[in-house]
Design goal:
The chain is α+β, with helices and mostly antiparallel strands. Helices cover about 40% and strands about 20% of the residues. A four-stranded mixed beta sheet has the order 2-1-3-4, with helices on one face. Helix 1 links the parallel strand 1 and strand 2. The longest helix has 21 residues.
Amino acid sequence: MVHLTAEALGLAGPLGERATLLQISSGFCAPCRAARGVLARIAQTETAVRHIELDVAHHPELAALLGIAQTPTVFLLDADGAVLARHEGVPKLALVRGLLDRLAPPQLTEDSRLTEDSRLTEDSRREARLHPGYAHTTGTS
């Protein structure tokens, strides 16, 4: 199993406390821009998840170590830097969220509770439009 450290990736700060989404990209890669959008959104909305994007041209040794054959290639790292999953191409938002949930459920802070409540509210409204008999409770009063 490959372990990557913040130092090995050339990062100034640590890996994500819960997980790190490592994206290997290339300069003129349109799918890489799409992957960046998906992964950045996840890092902004999930607790203790960090998104890191590295250009394959500037990290050839890492690319060789990881066996990069196409860009984007995305790796899910745990808090210790162990590679848990690999995806080539643009990942789907639901796929990445599902992998993160299996890794470790997020620890809810007050800010993340508000974000999660907002997401539940948006989901509830969408379900109510699609299924008029649908009722969703969040467990809060």
